[in-house]
Amino acid sequence: MNLITIDGPSASGKGTISALVAKKLGWAILDSGALYRISAYAVQTKGINPEDEGAVAAVVSDLDIQFKTSEVFVDGVEVSDILRLESTGKMASKIATYPTLRQALLDRQRNFIHGVAGLVADGRDMGTVVFPQAPLKIFLVADVNERANRRYKQLVDKGIEANFDEILVDLKRRDEQDMNRAVAPLKPAEDAVVIDSSYMGIQEVVEAILGAWADCI
Ligand code: C5P
Hints:
CATH superfamily of the largest domain: P-loop containing nucleotide triphosphate hydrolases
Structural class: alpha/beta
Catalytic activity: CMP + ATP = CDP + ADP; dCMP + ATP = dCDP + ADP
Number of helices: 10
Bound molecules: cytidine-5'-monophosphate
Number of domains: 2
EC number: 2.7.4.25
Keywords: ATP-binding, Cytoplasm, Kinase, Nucleotide-binding, Transferase
Organism: Pelistega indica
CATH architecture of the largest domain: 3-Layer(aba) Sandwich
Binding site for ATP: 8-16
């Protein structure tokens, strides 16, 4: 089975690295974080009470979600920029603690493996819950200061005003929430290959993953 899972904390570089690995192998991508962000967007725009777990899970079941290269459409509306907002990420992290929401998203995530040459799935629980059968599971970590630094530079490069200390506090809070939730917490699968990318370049990480895949098949 052509499947690599890449899990890890926020801003560990999973998205960029998954895209490069998938491109190199000619495979598709599942950005599972986007599904949680889409759920957050739906909660925020449809007037759903975010404290109401049942209502949050229900709203997601009916959404028409389309991923098209770098754009995401929800019920026909292009939402790519809204999904990247910090406020959307925060709401995503909050509602991602709801077991019923996670359950509602499970089949959508598993469907990504059908009809593709291979799949790189990135998120928090790809190797532990969604695709425990994956032949290669990567757990990508990086020092939180380094991650905050990367996120800060990313924003500044895009011309967006950013505050390093706020980013750092926010990342720590997000890590805490993702690692300590009762359902599908962020943790490496028992058979995961852990890569610490704190002092590695992107290409170096991509090569390490491709090397691990070559050893796997
Ligand atoms: O990866 P990204 O930052 O886009 O994910 C947004 C939020 O969605 C994360 O903070 C996390 O709480 C949640 N998430 C999750 N499980 C996944 C992917 C993301 O709980 N597989």
